[in-house]
Amino acid sequence: MKSFPVFERRVNFADTDLAGIVHFSNILRFIEEAEHAAMFSAGVAPVSNVGGFPKVHVKCDYRSPLKFGDVADILLEIVKMGEKSLSWNFKVYAGQRVVAEGTMVTVFVTSSGEGTVIPLGMREALES
User: Fold this and answer.
1) Are 128 and 42 in contact (CB under 8 A)?
2) How do residues 25-43 score in pLDDT, each as one tens digit?
3) For the whole model, what pTM was predicted?
């Protein structure tokens, strides 16, 4: 449905474990950074006084390790926009090597935490 520009992130020393490999949970943090950058690029704040888009489901297959100094290129696309939710595909690369790939679902919630319809302005910005 909608692809976003590649998000580039260099692996910092603090992202790694004692083996010098990025801990699996940090890959998900990188993906969230890319998601926020994608939404901002579309003119949508991922979190505001109106509400936000927390994850309700994430599936990630890890294919290859990332190490300190590697550059991760993260590709994101919205593959389905529901009334209240966004379904995303993601792929993380280090050069030509696939590091991780998967899907996630985010749901729009009000600032009080209740799921609700994605506001029309946000929907239009994410569709264009």
Assistant:
1) yes
2) 999 999 999 999 999 999 9
3) 0.93
